[in-house]
Amino acid sequence: MRPAPRPAAPARPLDQRVAGALHRVTAAALGPYQSAVIRIGFAGTWLLFLLREVPHRRELYGPDGPWSWDMAQQLIAKNSAFSALMWSDSVVWFEIVFAVAVLSSALLMLGWRTRTMSVLFMFGVLSLQNRSIFMGDGGDNVIHLMAIYLVLTRCGQVWSLDARRAARVASAAKAAGAAAPAVRDRVGPVLWTVTGTALLIGTLTDRIQIESWLLALFWGVWAGQGLWWAVNHHAPHGEPRALLDVLANLLHNATLAVIMAEVCLVYATAGWYKIQGSRWQDGTALYYPLKLDYFAPWPALSDLFASSALIVMVLTYGTVIVQVAFPFTLFNRRVKNVLLVAMMLEHAGIAVLLGLPFFSLAMIAADAVFLPTVFLLWLGGRVTGVRDRLLGRLPGRTRPRAEAAPPGQRRESSEQPRTLV
């Protein structure tokens, strides 16, 4: 006999569902691993690009470039874009800004003082890219946007030096049988004072008035940092800290949703524009970039793909299908994951065949917001295992303890419904 079907769970009242949704978006910052991958991906991509262009930095963004300082000043006076390189045309000032961009990218990728480094990362990205706007491509545009979004996220919860320091403090408090104490932070106030002084000088000496929203963002983040430190120092377990956590979680989750919408918009727009092109309609669009010397770092490999009409047609139509269909598959995890792998492979192929590695890395980092948490945990475990084996072979080094999973990443249940991240 067949077992009797289990009765369906009674539907929860609307007020309970609304309360549960509000609790979910305020109680925790969702997608900690996804936001960490975005942080590492974009900071690493920008860092690699800057390091590669160190010999040519002055021609790209500095005083030796074809886009002179006076021309940039005239353009920025019209579009009100922000660039700290417009504060002075000195070579010394350019080198300082470039060094800040490199250093902040490296520290953000490592997750050291993530909130401060995210602001300095945005400072470096906007300063360099807005100085010479004709040097960028689609990948630079994505980095430009994500540099602003990262400021509003709590992207250092996992896989960061900040998380490692917080776990160390909590472990020491647990061993002592007490609640986690307020940490005496000496580096934070120094960074806050230095950045505030630099922001004040920049605001007073800026020759070109930037957009008010960006100026408010800089000062708002700086003031928020000071308020956060004061609350943690004087009332680490009080209601003000709980309120700040709720506000930070709301801002993080809203920004993560914007990032996801941005990625979907990029692919949907690219796909629908491709459909209108005759070369994409007849399946030959991929052939032409493969035959351009400028986009052929491996001519023999490009000729191999271009010589097969079937491969060209499949890749051309496949690109359009994946880009148009992806936004419609977000609520079907299996199909979404298949298309996500296809898009990442597509960008890897662009990096190899067309010689656009930084564009591809930026897009893969943006795609990572949709990666399943289970896969990221597996990937993190594999990376940690390799790191531990390498460190274990060094004399005098002990293997670090495995990082504990943050709250809110348990198995899903009826009380904790599934989400896209």
Keywords:
18 helices; mainly alpha; 421 residues; disordered C terminus; single chain
3D architecture notes:
By secondary structure, this protein is mainly α. The chain is built from 18 helices and no strands. It starts with 13 loop residues before the first helix and ends in a 29-residue tail after the last helix.
Distance between the termini: 41 Å
> What string, H for helix and E for strand, traces the elements in order?
HHHHHHHHHHHHHHHHHH
**Low-confidence spans:** 407-421
Work out the strand percent. Answer: under 5%
Shape: globular
Average pLDDT figure = 85
Helical content band: 55-70%
> What oligomeric state best describes the polypeptide chains here?
single chain
State the helix count: 18
> Tally of extended strands?
0
Rg over CA atoms: 24 Å
Structural class: mainly alpha
Biggest pleated-sheet summary: none
In short:
The chain has 421 residues and is an all-alpha fold.
Spell out the blueprint of helices and strands.
Layout: H1 14-27, H2 32-52, H3 57-60, H4 69-79, H5 91-110, H6 114-131, H7 138-151, H8 161-175, H9 187-205, H10 212-234, H11 239-275, H12 278-281, H13 287-290, H14 299-306, H15 309-325, H16 333-353, H17 357-367, H18 373-392
